[in-house]
Amino acid sequence: MNPWLVALLRALLILVVMLLNGSLAIYMVRKVLGHAHLRLGPTELGPAGIAQVIADIVKLLTKEDRHPNRSDRWLYLIAPFIVFVPSFVAFSFIPFTDKLVAANPEMSLLMMLAFLAVPPLGIFAAGWSSRSKFATIGAMRAIGGMVTYEIPLLLAAIPPVILAGSANLQAIVLAQSHSIWYILPCLPSFVIALICAQMETNQAPFDMTEADQELVAGFSTEYSAMRFGFMYLAEFAGNFTFAALIVSLFLGGWTLPGISATALGPFAVLVFVAKCYLLIFLFMMVRGTYSRYRVDHYLEVGWKRLLPFSLAWIVVFAAAVRIIAMLKGGA
Amino acid sequence: MIERARIAELLSGASVTPVSLEDESCLGLVLRVAADDLLATFAALRDSFEQLIDLLGADLTPRNGGIEVTYRLRSLQENSDLVVKTTLEPGAALPSVTGFYLSALLPEREACEMFGLKLTGHPNPKHLLLTEGLPPMLLKSVPLRSEEDIQAETLPEGDPALQLLQEFEERGIIPPEDPDDPLENYVMAEWLSPEPPPGPIVPRNIRRQDDDPQSLSTNHYLLQIGPAHPATHGVLNIVAEMDGEKIVSSEAHVGNLHRGIEKLAESRRYHQLGTLVDRGDYVGGCNNELAVALAVEQLAEIEVPDRASWIRVLMAEINRLASHYIWFGPTGLDTGAMGIFLFCLYDRELWLDVLEEISGQRMMFNYIRPGGVVADITPKSVQMIEDILKIADGRLDEHYDALMASEIFQQRACGVGVVSKEDALSLGATGFVARASGIDWDLRRDRPYAAYDKMDFDVLTADSGDVWARMFCRLDEMRQSLRIVRQCLDGMPEGDFSAKLPRVLRVPEGECYVPVEAPRGEMGVHIYSDGTDKPYRMSYRPPTLYSLMISDLTLPGHFLADGIVSLGSFDFCFGEVDR
Amino acid sequence: MTTSLTPASASAPKKAHWPSGLISAARIAAINLFRRNITIQYPKQRYDQPDRSRWAVEQVFDEAGMHRCTACKICEQSCSDKCIHIDVETREDKTKFIHAWNYERAACMMCGLCVEACPYGAIRMGHDYELAHSASAEKRIDLLREVEAIDPRKKQAADTQEAPDA
């Protein structure tokens, strides 16, 4: 088949998977937060309220797309795409099984992290171009916070790379299936990665960017209809992307300990997705429980605590790996 | 008790000759001075009386009395009040006493706008509740208009409001596109002023900072927080001058919920007043009704049966719990913790079910009347309260763990919104705001009313005056309320639930003020009666008007996020600020 | 925390050593995840109202379908917001005919003062809270229309006659 056609089909498939995951995450957050807060979440439309998401999407599609008079027109119009498209591209590097991965370059981990660094710029563009004071404050906080927490995320991804010997996500997953899940030797990295994921998806306790109680809707205050829908969807798809990243790096991806890839067969996808949604559940529970960090507090946490700690941890970890290797080689 | 002789001594020391210094039956010691001596009187009394608790006006022109302005000074140490009254001609100038007591800032503005007086010496003599251009509403010569009258009214030609309306019609209500247009920066109250000032309008309170040549200076911008905002707990509009995330100066614009409760009270019978004040502090209605009932009973010398007093205490404390829950949850929600909001609302639902069982409504109870209460408590309600009391204390521990124990929240709340003891005293803070700043004062203990003298409860004070202290004091108040509810159930005496009163109650001429410890502070009702079945003047002293002044003065210097948390911690209720 | 509290009650704040506070918040979240929800799914479920619950005013009709209003207008006087308007015609023989017992339901604050004031128990606070309407004609409704007012003297006589039976 024409390789361009194949690539296009893969991209479309990834888009569909991403949208489905986003919708499922939206439904899940409403139900999880509901039950955590002694209530029910959506119940009316569809069995257990599943069709609520469809109704919301249809509503967003049919709403009036209004833009403020004084907004920076071009930047305002394309900002949601700057948020959405890199998330979508990053999605394509996720290894669902050993054969189901849309794009598998040699350094897929680095490329994924590189693409995940672009949405904060989109958020900033969205807030800045709205030319509304609340949106601007949200944009400033986004730039401060999200850029800060990308660095510990990258540093937290390094110990698994050291252990696996490769920066390819598929290779890291396979390496875990031959030894143990990397959460055990790299536990601090796992915790740091979780914290950074919570920040990058703008969820409490790091959701200063869109703090309802202060900024109405933060950077997306002036957005309506499908542009808002794009950014909203990108945020929930980001939930899955980060969860998938952490699962691939630390929780063994689509493998289960002791069961070979062939034995798993088609269930590998289910294993992977189940693990991802377990992490998403954790994100959502944390979101519904804790207060928000103030801007200067989380910047302090990011720069003064997470960053030095992750650097120190890498040094310690690498030294330990080397020493253990030398002892094993010597003995 | 500060004796009359002492006051006379202080006044003579300042060479002020009072018009009179007498014990007036229900009010206690009343000092009447001429308007010219007002500032000298306050200078003489400032050191003995720490707080200016209440400031109100009354139109006594039908009685040939002019406009009477009443000040209530309080000495916490001696636990005594002094009422200072002065009489002015209509349209005269009222000298401001903000130089002595900062708590006169907002009440003086309101008194002058409502009675047509000119305010002199005040830093910000704007209208508080009504837009400029409206007549002084509380004057007896200004009638309440019916809906038909208002609808029939047309604006005169040349009226600036009409011109603005016509302009917006031509424009199709699209905002002007010129950012230098002065209309862009108008604040609501300025729109209807007679001459639109040239250039961008900045509210008077806001001071522009000088750019420090050494620092990296940024432009300050004006941010309107509210009135339609998820976190301003009602219709508060704070116009803040911001430098990035920091609030440099701010001014609160209130009056969006003004319904004329005090004017309406003059055409209501005494048993209907409860329905009006219910809608002041709308979450703590029982306490407001209790204040009005006690005031009327004091004036008419009605004896309330014991059982009625105990039922009143029970309802007041249950209402206090319900009010505190609807504050605790949203204060947590303001910081981002979603869960605590719903956990608190669930507990509040349990108490609201009890209140509905007893009074018939969840919010506007209309249950406590002069003479007693409307109906006795039911056995089912007693059972419901017993069931709740079994779990309530444990649930309060859970709420503490869910919100206040977490370090993230403590970082947000400790050291934020600090109100020093001196500020609290001079700004008329009462209730939990005062207690969190170190002032040991609780009306239920120090001036017991209803059956509180028979109740055993602790009063917690803190010394840091920050959001954390206020939250903790209120959490403890909730625990004490549970104790009082328990005692009410255990010790409720038998008897009537109400005294027998005529259907139309006529109250002899007099004047009295009754304060109660409402959930938000000291809520006081000052009633002038004239022997008829309707009050001559009813004034509602709202505790959160004074908290608003405190927050106005402590907001600058905070980050926006801290400002929101600090606002939430004062527990504003705009029903009572705006009345 | 440098807050000192007086009196030092048993519920003094516990100094939170990181991460004990975060853990206690998480514990409460976990507890609440497994608690029953507190939602009453309206309109499929409704809650039981207590007897004293006050919603819109209703006329009281006896078993024969007869109302009890004597058109004394005490309720009209006692209403704070003037929501009740009774259009009464008094004939020469002192009997009254109610043309309309008009009730401005949308303005009523459901305080119950009218019901308390009525000496004949002719009105009560109903339990119907589903009062939302889309036609503005439903803001003001006539609870009674073109009926004879009950004569209070005849009613008293009827009551005393019934007393020996009861």
Describe this structure in a few short sentences.
The complex is a heterotrimer of chains A (331), B (579) and C (166). With 331 residues, chain A is mainly α.
Describe this structure in words.
- The complex is a heterotrimer of chains A (331), B (579) and C (166).
- Chain A is mainly α.
- Chain A has one domain.
- Chain A has 14 helices and no strands.
- The longest helix of chain A is centred in the last third of the chain and has 36 residues, at 295-330.
- Chain A starts with a helix and ends with a helix.
- With 579 residues, chain B is of the alpha+beta class.
- Chain B has two domains: 4-143, Beta Polymerase, domain 2; 261-541, Cytochrome-c3 Hydrogenase, chain B.
- Chain B is 39% helix and 16% strand.
- Chain B has 19 helices and 16 strands.
- In chain B, α9 packs antiparallel against α10 and α9 (306-334) runs antiparallel to α16.
- Chain B is globular and about 60 Å long.
- In chain C, 21% of the residues lie in helices and 20% in strands.
- In chain C, 22% of the residues are buried.
- The longest helix of chain C is centred in the first third of the chain and has 14 residues, at 20-33.
- Chain C has helices spanning 20-33, 74-78, 113-117, 152-162; strands spanning 5-6, 57-59, 84-90, 96-104, 123-125, 140-148.
- Chain C has a domain at 57-153: Alpha-Beta Plaits (2-Layer Sandwich).
- At the B-C interface, α10, α11, α12, β13 and α16 of B face β1, α1 and α3 of C.
- β13 (461-462) of chain B pairs antiparallel with β1 of chain C.
